[in-house]
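From the pipeline queue, job 12 of 40. The input is one protein chain; the requested action is below.

Action: predict structure.
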Amino acid sequence: MLSDNKKLIAVIGATGQQGGGVLRALQARGQFNSLRKSSRQI
């Protein structure tokens, strides 16, 4: 279980424009113990 009631979130497409922006915004808020990112490889 995660401490301090912080949550885990997964961002799909974290290397793209939209996903990257979402990831940076979530990191800046600092409300999450752990962020997971995923990208598709071509």
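Job complete. The mean pLDDT is 78.
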